[in-house]
Amino acid sequence: MASRSHVDVNERRLRPIYDCLDNGNNKKAIQEADKVLKKQKELTCAKVLKALALLRMGRHSEGSSLLETIHQSEPTEEQTLNAMSICYKETQQYEKIASLYEAASKHQPNNEDILSCLFMAHVRLGNYQQQQRTAMSLHKLRPNKNPYYFWAVMSIVMQGHNDKKLGQTTFLPLAEKMTKKYIQEDKIEAEAEILLYLIILELQGKWQEALEILEGPLGGQLGNELNLRETRLAHVCTQMAKWDKVFKIYKDLLNETPDDWTFWLKYQDAGFHMVEEHISENKSELSDSTLKEMDSFIKEKIAAMSDGVLLRGPYLAQIEFRKQLLKRNWSCLESQEDILRLLQDYYDKFGHHSCCYSDMRLYVDFLTSEEVDKVFQAHSLILNKLPNCKCYSLVLSLCSMQVKQMTRHLVYIQLSRTMGKHIILSIDNALRLSKDLLLRYQDGLRFGKDPPLLVTDLQYSDNYLLLAVHLLLDVWTKTGDDIHLWRAIVHLELGIRESKSNYQIKLLLIRLYCIKGVFGPCPSLYDSMEIKHIMNDTMGYIVSNHVIRLGHFMEAGTMYNTWVRFFDINQKEASEHLMSSYKFGSFGRIQEFVEFQERLDNALQYHSAKTEKMLLNLIMQTDRHETTETAVESMNVHPLTDTPVDHSKLRDNRDLTISLSWDPPSLLLPEDNRMKSVEEEESWLHLRWTLLHILLLAVMVGRDITNKSVVNGNSDSGEDHKKDKQTSLELLKKRLDELQKYAHQCERFKEPRQYHIVQGPFRTRISEFLQGPHISAISIMVDCVDYVYTLTKLGLEESKPEKEECWTRMKDFSKNLIIQDVGSLIKESNGKRQLDSSGLEQLVASVESISYLTILSGVCNKGLNHLKNNWTRKSKKGKSPPAPQPETFVNFNAMITELSAVTKELHQIASSLDPVFTSVDIASLRLADIPEEEQLQRGAEHLVWNKVEHSIQQSSREICEVLHHKQFYLNTLML
């Protein structure tokens, strides 16, 4: 009783501290903690809460010091341990949580709560071996609690996941043996334990044993999830090629849920396998009994809907059945129905649903263009041909159309494009059809006014707008006349006013703006789609290849920080999901969460964003060499031990089909485009990673000259330090050699790759990097760093005229970074003034290179400054007149002067791009031919040009800002 009273007193005293922390009043929390500690000096939990408040106030050194002291005392109180866990979670020191509970468990080996927390700490770290050990300790402590035993079993399974070879020979057999023991002793209590045993068997390919479990009494206990036992049984039978059982299982499932498309596909797949096996075994003619049974079953399901709600599944299954017969050239059915008639029937029943297009698209490959037209002949929405035009116009007047009729017409137009009818149109006819679709779009807007749609709803006619824009892009591709692209942008800008939540319009707008070198409007469009969480990985590519390319450095920093933060937080969130899976016995989800975590950890977008973020920091956060060293110190990289990204492990998680396109598959080529794009992205990532490590190693070399190590605050001395100095320089030269060799291997990327204009990925900047003087400039500058290091090691006496050429080479070569033909972004093309932003990309590449050269020059300055100080001291000791300054110093200053001149020239070029600075009237690029009465379109055009002007102005100013900092940086490097 006295002990309980003591605990109550402590809780009462700590409550004000917890309240202050919950309210975010950290200063008050410290005061309350101090009050408690005056009365009760040894109340450890109060000290921990004070440390937590200090950490949240940014006083990390004080908070960490206090936590370390408490940690070393190895506390065991539950409140203290929980509070310390919160501190370590917030500082992402997850290893210390495990260490904390490990120490506590030694003092209290029979404390179930401490051991449970220790197990979860190992789960967070992914330490499967320690998980197993802790789980077995819990099992010995509480042998009647099944979950602890199966925690150990699952930990063994996960060890097999980490090591596939040992998994099959050691870990999985052990897990199977442990689980079978509980089955034989009739100790199984939960469905999760049965599922875990099935997982173990399936991972070993023991399908017969799994089948026996599913068909036995244990399988009957799998009832919490709908159809779980049946789908598991069908999966096992599929692996064993027991097609008759699979066939029966899915037939029974379809009797319950006849609209499940997955069930229909697997049902038919099993049926066709049965027929093929019969042919193979009997070497006889095609037997149609199974096929007739399938055909009758489908018709039975269709007939059952005659008086009820129509379901798409059975009708699609009927078409799929005929498709598979045609693929196999089987025509054994007496009443052979053709796909054309079935598609006509499907369109009759479901053509008023927007999903009808995606359903029918699966089967139009089996029809000719003329047969597709026949599908729609029975409907009043089919159409008169315009004179000399293969496009179509409604017989009915626009005003008489209803939403269902409009949807039917949209399905037809979409399928027409998929069949290639729009691609073969002449330019005039394509423009006429585009205009016709825009009129239909405008007329369709009335359906969203009465009753009014919600802001989050899409307009019923939005796809007319998108189809019209795609036709304009076809014309732009054929003619090269930008007027069609800008008109497409204007129409999309008008469309987004009416349908603010239509992400397809926003995606297309981002793409078209970026094609023309205008990034300014893109961030707001991107943010308005509320891209969060996993979408940062799948959709980040939409803007990632453009933001730096077009000179928006500030926005690039924001975007890269967001992406990298998401991937970093993933580790924490995935761990929480894993712990929940263990707590609730969801063993089947554990492997899924681990695989999902690995997928994000190896994401191409993650590694690209992380590398670009660090390179951007070296550009943006440096105006003198001291800030460069500080920026490098803050990076969590180890250039002496880091290895290049393993391309075999990289995962391309981009959703390249997110943008809607109705083009023929022969033009889309999604898999071919993905393969080429991944190859290009990986090569660009490798080049950027190598360049980053060249810069980091060079900064290390500069610090080594003054006997300091820059990376992560490490410092060495004596023989080890000499070894590190040599290692950093040797590794620097090795990385440079790798950069040059890999660039040579990437010659195939010198010509910019072009992908599908709407749905394809966008090229990287690798072509500009390889075509320009950038690699050569970096190479010469690294030679300069190597030369300076040699001088600091051997003395100025090693300065020889032939070795001094590196300064002259750099001085002369730096002029190649000046872009000659940027001038203005408005250029004449075919007698028309058009916006051409190709020079902007070249300018950005030169600005990046001058930034990197400035950093490398800072490394040289550090070494030469050291030499100059020694030379000055020696000169002052002598009584003779002062000797002239060594040639090395003079040559270095000349090189810096030339780099400064190049920077000024680039600054002038960047300034000349600013429409305000140069008094260029971008609005003079009017689209023309817009009738005066179309004031709305004229206003949208004016808005577009304002956005273009603002974007170019933003690019110009941010580039100038970077160059201004580099100019200041270079001025500090003069000896």
From TrEMBL:
Record Gene3D superfamilies: 1.25.40.1040
Family (UniProt): Belongs to the MDM20/NAA25 family.
Name the UniProt record assigns to this protein: N-terminal acetyltransferase B complex subunit NAA25 homolog
Taxonomic superkingdom: Eukaryota
Lineage: Eukaryota, Metazoa, Spiralia, Lophotrochozoa, Mollusca
Pfam families: NatB_MDM20
Record-level GO cellular component terms: NatB complex
InterPro entries in alphabetical order: NAA25_NatB_aux_su (IPR019183), TPR-like_helical_dom_sf (IPR011990)
